[in-house]
Design a protein that fits this description.
- By secondary structure, the chain is α+β, with helices and mostly antiparallel strands.
- Helix content is about 35%, strand content about 25%.
- A hairpin with a 2-residue loop joins strand 1 and strand 2.
- Helix 1 packs antiparallel against helix 2 and helix 1 runs parallel beside helix 4.
- The longest helix is centred in the N-terminal third of the chain and has 19 residues.
- The chain starts with 17 loop residues before the first helix and ends in a 7-residue tail after the last helix.
């Protein structure tokens, strides 16, 4: 699947209605799973997911991974979008909260989130999902949108399932 995924083209930055976003993601998931089938390397999986989710989620202005590099520290991994923060301590921001608690963080308004880190001043909402391998947090998937309420609980659940299926059997590297 070197050509990406087959979805109707939507301009970057457009916030589709929630039902359309969920339907688009549901249509993309089998294609994404087919693209990563058999891959076990974490970096290869993260890079491919960042690319394909960027295509599937046009409301994002940043889509990628922060990888656990030390106790209490994340470092930027494969992503699509503008410059991200290079390192994020578990004590800081939405990504840090996700890493610290190993729970999904759905933030409809980042300005209302205590301690939000503004890596991109345009970001208004964020969805961060933990990547667990063997019961240990290895990374977080970070999705940013310039729209308030750019992500829904339904999208979060679909992406949680994708990550659980994708990273089963993954190896460091």
């Amino acid at each position: 699947m070197s050509e990406g995924i087959l979805l109707e083209k939507v301009a970057r930055g457009v916030l589709l209605p929630q039902t359309e976003r969920v339907a688009r993601l549901e249509a993309a998931l089998p294609q994404i799973l087919a693209a990563v089938a058999g891959e076990t390397g974490e970096v290869a999986l993260e890079a491919t997911l960042a690319c394909l989710l960027w295509e599937a989620l046009p409301q994002t202005n940043w889509c990628g991974f922060y990888r656990r590099v030390a106790e209490g520290m994340l470092a930027v991994g494969p992503y699509q979008g503008g410059m991200g923060c290079l390192r994020i301590a578990f004590e800081r921001g939405v990504c840090g909260a996700c890493a610290r608690t190993a729970t999904t963080q759905l933030v409809p308004d980042v300005h209302a989130f205590p301690g939000h880190i503004a890596c991109d001043d345009a970001t208004r909402s964020e969805l961060v999902i933990p990547v667990m391998i063997g019961g240990r947090l290895e990374a977080v998937l970070d999705l940013d949108s310039p729209h308030p309420e750019g992500f829904s609980g339904a999208e979060a659940r679909l992406l949680e399932g994708l990550l659980a299926r994708t990273f089963t059997g993954a190896m460091k590297g």
